[in-house]
Amino acid sequence: MLPESPRMNNDLHELGSVSAAAEHPGLAVGVKQLVKRFGERQVLHGLNLNIEAGEFIAIVGRSGCGKSTLLRLLAGLDATSGGEIQLNRQPAEAFKDDVRMMFQDSRLLPWRTVVQNVAIGLEGSAREIRARALEVLAQVGLADRADEWPNRLSGGQRQRVALARALIHRPRLLLLDEPLGALDALTRIEMQRLIEQIWRQHRFTAVLVTHDVSEAVALADRIVLVEAGRITLDEPVPLGRPREHGEAGFARLESRILKRLMTVSALDSGNQIKGRITEIVVDSVLSEVRILTPAGLLTATVLTRSLSEQPLELGADVLASFKSNEVVLATAGG
Amino acid sequence: MALSDKLARGRQTLIPWLVPIGVLLFWQLAARAGWLSSRILPEPLAVLQAGFTLAASGELFQHVKVSALRALSGFAIGGGLGLALGLLTGSFRKAELALDTTLQMIRNIPPLALIPLVILWFGIDEIAKLFLISLGVFFSVYINTFHGIRSVDPALIEMGKSYGLKGWGLYREIILPGALSSILVGVRYALGFMWVILIVAETISAQAGIGYMTMNAREFLQTDVVLLGILLYAVLGKLADAFARLLERRWLKWNTSYNAA
After folding, report:
1. How far apart are CA A210 and CA A196, in angstroms?
2. pTM score, two decimals?
């Protein structure tokens, strides 16, 4: 993974010579009173959202809050149940070919080589298409893997191929559905930088759906929090680029949004359960807290560090809230 | 070290052949010593000799050609129809609704149970044999094609559509390659079944072919030729299977599970 970095930087140099930016300004997105139902269940409740042309926005929220549904509606993959989506103040269908989606699982065709995967859906002479695909592969630093099968690549490399596949269509609106969710931390940061560089080069409008608040802060001009099918927070990110994860402003904003995300989910009583701590198993990094609840024994994994900052007592009453993929504990006092 | 590696590999390839060679040697000895009557089991050398004699007269190749042609034409007809209908019912819900139940009902009839009816319809001609082989081959290709198409990852189809593929392009890039491994499984089954039906059909009646040759030899108590016929069926079956494996390795080379073989 590490040896890839220098090659990637070289390719980003090359990218400077490609001046697709001026010809392809991003699309402005206007979402009005958007409603989506799956049978009985209503997922989006009259959601409104405006995105400026060329803006990078991040949508965060718990699993099942409707953020991915919103993205799929923007991509035209599902039909809306009500409301309207406009691109550049026109019905979205007019720009179907200008919208591209990057999926959480790369969705590469295993029976096509890397370069063939990038070229999917393109029409024209085979040699021309290959040349274009190689050029875009170079932008994501994978030109030398062009003729390999996708199953030989690592998760991060696959997502880079998927990014190249989206970029080759010169999208004016790029939708990213948790594309880095399955990657390890280092690869994820590398990919975030790559996506940011490419976005700055091409100036398309980007909508990133993510669980990861720090990823949202690293990339977005604006962070939107979706809860239960509505937007409950719309926060600009007033930080210069490129952003460093350790910076003070970065950390402040990240923790504020995280806190907000937690309060909102904690308020949702459907995700909570009261109980009493029966056992605490302390280990070096992660510790386990066992809680006896009316529904049975619950084991929550917490950072040992946070346990030392906010001590929990055996026998104390706690409120456990289930977030996307973790459990948050709150004591009766605090 | 390289030498010992080579020796080890040589031993690896040799060991599986020890038992068959031993059996052959014992058989040859037993026949020579007179423990086995040549009417029950002629010695292996006699089988070989019968093969040479028949090959020299050109008779052998004639029979093999007729049998192979019979099998392959039946396979082409039945397999072709199975592929076409499988693609149809797999791709279009309406076609599935209209055809699948009927086909599933027919599938439950063993083709060999139809022999009396087939003889009544077509006599004991070439057509009867082709009909039986086609029917036998049809269903394994049909079902595996249908399932292959239905089990193509919908996420990939969705990706293809959102990247501008539609109609034939979607079919060529995603649906067919996605269904291919399942279709090839159907083809391998079909090839195996093809020989079974061919043997039965040829044994009933034929004017040429391996089955005719063995039936004739039985009349004249030429056990060596009967054995030769059985051996030929085995060789042809093995060849067909090797061909199917070759196709798998060629067309599914992206799939790591086919690379190792």
Report:
1. 15
2. 0.74
